[in-house]
Structures are given as structure tokens and as C-alpha cells.
Amino acid sequence: MPHRCPVCVVTCEDFRLHRRTDGGDFIGDFVRSLGAEGDVITRAGGVQDLVRPGAGFDESLLRDIAVSMEQHGAETIYLINHEDCGAYRFEFATREEELRRHGQDLRQAAEILKKRFPTVRVVTMLARLEGGDGQRYRIEETG
Ligand SMILES: [Zn+2]
User: Fold this and answer.
1) Cβ atoms 98, 38 nearer than 8 A
2) CA of residue 81 to ligand 1 center, whole Å
3) pLDDT value of residue 1
4) Are the CB atoms for 122 and 54 separated by under 8 Å?
5) How many Cα atoms occupy the beta-carbon half-sphere of 92 within 13 Å?
6) Which pLDDT does position 5 carry in this prediction?
7) What is the pLDDT of residue 133?
8) What ranges do the domains of the chain cover?
9) How many A from CA of 84 to the centre of ligand 1?
10) Does domain 7-141 have CATH number 3.40.1050.10?
11) Contact 61, 41 (CB under 8 A)
12) How deeply is 7 buried, as exposed, middle or buried, from its count of CB atoms within 10 A (0-12, 13-18, 19+)?
């Protein structure tokens, strides 16, 4: 039985983004806001494995994306990194440095995907912390 979805999301596994006990589900809410079904691929660090590959993790992520495109018909890939990401090891001296790094990584990941899958549309986004409690995110498109 064929099953199709037009969207694939690549994001971090961080529990704060998904199906929380307090009802928060920022990635789920984002997918629902698109009005389309979507595969959700989670990796520690979101796109980090694509831009700093190690131990075959990039190929594993590319395989998951290929399955979404080839088996489910995904035509648009949303890449969503997030602030305060443990996979980035909190190594930033300033918030500006953190935002700049995510922007660079997201742009580089988008280029890698466009080269590998020329027909795909890639949208880069960042989940920004809001509210000051380190628990709530607002997902924004990046430049
Ligand atoms: Zn993370």
C-alpha cells in the first residue's frame, strides 16, 4: 500500500523539541503547521553529522533522507538545528557565536544535500529558545 509524504524534517533528538510530558511538541507543531505529512529524522546535533562527518554518520543520515525521498516522495527537506544543543557541546563563548555556527552548518548541509539530491528543495531553520526557562522553542527560517 503506497504511502506518501511531501516533507522530510531533519532535526535533533533533544527531548525538549518533541512530545513532552507538558504537551509541548515543537517539531510536531511545526510539521502540522505545514499542512502536510512529514517524515522526521532525528540525530544528535541535527545536521552536524553532514558537515563534520565521522564514523559513517553522514552516510547513514543521507541514507535516511534518500529513503524519505524515494519511498515516501519527500520533495522538501527542512533542516532544523536548535539553540542550546548538547551535541554542539555548549562550546560557544557567546550566543552570537552559537547562532553564527548554526547558520554556517545549516547552509553547508543544504549545499551538500542539493549536490546529492539535485531535485530537492531545502529549507534551513533554527529553533530559538524563548521565555528564558530553557524549555521553549520558536522555529524560524534562517537566511
Ligand atoms: Zn540538540
Assistant:
1) no
2) 7
3) 64
4) no
5) 16
6) 95
7) 87
8) 7-141
9) 7
10) yes
11) yes
12) buried
Residue 122 C-alpha to ligand 1 middle, in angstroms? 20
**83 Cα–ligand 1 center, Å:** 8
Those residues of the chain that have pLDDT short of 50 are: none
Q: Which grid cell sits at 9?
A: 524534517
Q: Are strands 7-11 and 76-82 parallel, antiparallel or unpaired?
A: parallel
> What DSSP letter does each residue of 51-106 carry, written as one string?
HS--TTHHHHHHHHHHHHHHHH---EEEEEEESS-GGGTT--SSHHHHHHHHHHHH
How far is the centre of ligand 1, averaged over its atoms, from the C-alpha of 46 (Å)?
A: 7
**For residue 4, how far is its CA from the centre of ligand 1 (angstroms)?**
28
With left for phi above 0 and alpha for psi between -120 and 50, is residue 35 left, alpha or beta? left
In angstroms, what is the span from residue 2 Cα to ligand 1's centroid? Answer: 32
